[in-house]
Amino acid sequence: MADAETSRLCVQIVRSHFGPLTANVASALLTRGRLSLAHLIRYTMMKPRTVRAAILILVQQNILWHSNTEEEGDMLEFNTLECLMRLRFGRYVWQAEQLFGPSVRTLFFSSSDSVNTCAPGCRSCSSLYSQTLYKLISSAYLKPSTLLSHHSPRDKRIKYEAEEKAKIAGFPTAKELREAQETAEARLKREEEEAESVGLKRKPKDLLSHRSSKKKATEEDMVDDDVYFRVNFDKFNIYIRNKLIEMAVGERFNQSAALVMRATLKASEARQKSHSSASLVKDYLGLMSAVDNPTPAGKAASFISLADNKVHIEFEIVSKRLRRRVLEAVARERHGDDGVRIVRLLLDIGKMDEKQIAKVAMMPNNVVRPLLAALSSDFLISTQEVPRSADRNPTRTFYLWHVDLPKAYSALLGHLYKTLYNIGMRRQAEQEEPTVKAVLAKRARTDVAQDENLLSRMERDVLKEWETKREKLTVLEMRVEEVVFILRDLDKVGSHEDI
Asked: What confidence tens digit (pLDDT) does each residue in 296-335 have?
């Protein structure tokens, strides 16, 4: 179950996209966890027909999982991550336009309004849209929507792990339990890959061109009209990750190094290498790989590594460094430079008691003690109790301070979700202001939409001011969502790739 801030943000997203009735259903599921249809009708106090319609919408958008078990029967569960991804739909559409042209906007709007969208056939779609759809599917920017995507992967993983553990004779060891988990995970991944292998089919013989027999097999494929597709978020997250790495290189070195990193990232996608000015590029690659500093500190500050005439992009190291930079920025904003000094000290050395921190950081004890308490209250640092006696008497216990990164990142995500919720509420409050609401209602009229000169000068000024505020709030929302991507999704997208 999601925490309070995440739940409020998800309810706000559902309300803005699908209306208040659907948001009521989402709120009940987020507050009470997975529910059956009967319990959902009782908790929402809505008509069964309305609840079924809301469930149908959320299931179609992949925001709800449904499962059928012998113990619980038909149950519904909210997919929090899929709902939060809807904040990036604008960026996804922009990225797709950069790659495939403006014709992709229509296809993506249909996919965003109805995530599971059927492939348009040649009868109802122009040749341009058919070609664009084929490129999106063949390049994995759209993936098939299967039955497995509507079931909770957690339930399937638990079921598969139980089946593997049942095969173990006697009391299972830690190694056998780990192997059972790995086998269940591999089985789940294999099923997903097999289910998503559909979408394209061979053209009928009467549609094949006989001009050349040397054409690739992919050119003889066509989109299967019976398959429904949805946006592949992971594919677009790669571009967000690459842009963040490129910006980090530009801040660390210069724009020329950022251009080399962009070319390296692009070459890792295409698995081919073609550069001009080879000597200059080689120097920049050596600079980004920290070949002049073969120490653990130099390794931690590198962006790439060179081995066997290959360039390895260190996504894991870069993502850890970007997340640590976010943590240090929050510590500096809330607690000043002294707070950042303590956080860096604990990250570099590890667990330390209060006296050691004051001695190594060269700070007086009367300054360190309240600062540690403030950092702990914000969940930026944590304590580890080491009792000196079996009774765990607090007076005979060592308290070691350290940075629990998962806990700190989780706390930061909660604050960021709260910020996103406040931004949405501010946008809604500005839009519902009586003067702005009246002008927006007037602009929605058919005659005014065709000719905005029908608006008075004062109404145009009000409209311009509202659009300026909305643009500022949207930019702020994108910046906050970018930090959310760094903390939550960057390590999932990143992998060890080479060219």
From this structure: 777 787 888 887 777 788 888 888 999 999 999 999 999 9
| Structure-token pair, residue 498 | 């080479």
Sign, Cα dihedral of 248, 249, 253, 257: negative
Report the C-alpha gap between 186 and 183 in whole angstroms: 5
Structure letter (DSSP) for residue 401: E
* Angstrom distance (rounded) from CA 261 to CA 249: 7
* H helix or E strand, kind and range, residue 386: strand 382-387
Torsion of CA 472, 474, 477, 478, to 10 degrees: -110
pTM for this entry: 0.79
Are 224 and 198 contacting, i.e. CB atoms less than 8 angstroms apart? yes
Q: What are phi and psi of 139, to 5 degrees?
A: -90, 5
How far is residue 222's CA from residue 116's CA, in Å, rounded to a whole number? Answer: 19
Q: Residues 104, 132: contact at Cβ < 8 Å?
A: yes
Question: Which candidate, 318, 311, 241, 314, places its Cα nearest to that of 273?
Answer: 311
Q: Angle, to 10 degrees, between the axis of helix 104-113 and the axis of helix 127-138?
A: 70
Q: Give the span between the Cα atoms of 266 and 286, in whole angstroms.
A: 18
Q: Write out the two tokens for 164.
A: 């593997």
Q: In what order do the strands lie in the sheet with 304-307?
A: 304-307, 310-313, 497-498
Q: Which residues of 444-461 are buried (b: 16+ CB within 10 A; e: fewer)?
A: eeeebeeeeeebeeebee
Lookup: tokens for 61: 């958008």
Residue 192 token pair: 């997903």
So what's the pLDDT on residue 328?
Answer: 93
Dihedral sign from CA coordinates of 265, 271, 277, 282: positive
Neighbours of 296 (CB within 10 A): 8
Exposure string of 425-443, with b = 16+ CB inside 10 Å and e = fewer, is: eebeeeeeeeebeebbebe
Counting Cα atoms < 13 Å in the Cβ hemisphere of 376 gives 14
Burial of residue 64 (CB within 10 Å: 0-12, 13-18, 19+) is buried
Neighbours of 261 (CB within 10 A): 26
Running along the chain, 499 residues long, what does each successive block of 10 average in pLDDT? 86 93 93 90 92 92 83 85 90 87 72 50 58 81 81 82 84 85 85 72 57 49 76 88 88 85 75 50 76 76 79 85 93 93 92 91 91 93 87 83 93 94 93 90 86 86 92 93 91 53
